From TrEMBL:
Homodimer. This is 4-phosphopantoate--beta-alanine ligase. GO terms for molecular function: acid-amino acid ligase activity; ATP binding. It comes from the Archaea. HAMAP family: PPS (MF_02224). It comes from candidate division MSBL1 archaeon SCGC-AAA261F17.
Length: 253
């Protein structure tokens, strides 16, 4: 493992990269996942590598939506498993969600490895692995359409960190409420989701866990209020504006 000096200006970002590389070496992450992370990093750089107030608003709405859901599911891919395995398990516990492995680049070995990794971080059950419960989403072609009939297939709300656009759109067509975590406010996933958290998953999941604890103390009416007052399109537009402002600022310094 490479030693990262704590005074390095990109220390945190380098630590996150190390986690992904470790995940890659363990077989959790595919090469395409490393490159997808790079795309996210570029947007994070523009955001100043911090959670904006707009993302905080989306986090509040997303967490309230998960708490109000009847059958919420957190979908996990290789990058998510490598970066925030413990946080996924903790958040699922706080909001009463199931965890399902759902991969863009599928292989039964990697599905199993990711499930075991989550179990080693405290998950009691991980769906998406057993073939006997496999269902297909007709809206997607190819083997990427596989979901678990006990999980995403039956869910009303699905949290999809770092998802691809086709599947997000397919989940919407199936009538699911979709919550995305995506650093690119212009991606198809960000645009198609009901609630998009434009933030790095390594920052947003801990904030969601805290929010879930806070929101579970308040009445259901208050939680519903947080959901009603949210406009995803507006939030995304303001986030792009925030990025523009940051670039303008940077261009003058
Ligand atoms: P779409 O198909 O939705 O238009 P895409 O093809 O750009 O998206 P993918 O490569 O399928 O995206 O998925 C990667 C997405 O995840 C990118 O939009 C990237 O910004 C985002 N991303 C990568 N790493 C992180 C991270 N650590 N936190 C949040 N988002 C991330």
């Amino acid at each position: 493992m490479t030693e990262i000096e704590s005074d390095h200006p990109r220390a945190e970002s380098l630590r996150v990269r190390e986690k992904l590389v470790n995940g890659f070496e363990k077989g959790l992450v595919v090469p395409e996942g490393l490159s997808a992370h790079g795309r996210g990093e570029a947007f994070d750089y523009i955001l100043g590598e911090e959670t904006s107030n707009l993302a905080r608003k989306a986090i509040e709405t997303a967490t309230a939506t998960l708490l109000e859901a009847e059958n919420p599911v957190i979908s996990v891919n290789g990058n998510t498993a490598a970066l925030v395995p413990g946080e996924v398990v903790e958040l699922a516990g706080e909001v009463g969600a199931k965890i399902e492995v759902n991969l863009f680049h599928r292989s039964p070995e990697r599905e199993k490895l990711i499930a075991e990794h989550l179990i080693s971080h405290g998950a009691s059950e991980v769906l998406g692995v057993e073939e006997e419960f496999a269902a297909r989403i007709p809206e997607i072609h190819s083997d990427r359409r596989k979901v678990d009939e006990r999980g995403i297939k039956a869910a009303d709300v699905v949290l999809v960190p770092l998802e691809d656009g086709d599947r997000t759109e397919a989940l919407k067509e199936l009538g699911k409420t979709v919550i995305a975590i995506d650093l690119n406010p212009m991606s198809r996933t960000a645009q198609a989701a009901d609630v998009t958290i434009v933030d790095n998953i390594v920052r947003s999941l801990p904030l969601m866990i805290k929010e879930a604890r806070d929101l579970s103390e308040v009445s259901s009416n208050k939680r519903e209020g947080a959901v009603w007052g949210f406009d995803n399109e507006q939030n995304l537009g303001s986030t792009i504006n925030l990025m523009l402002g940051r670039l303008e600022e940077l261009s003058q310094t």
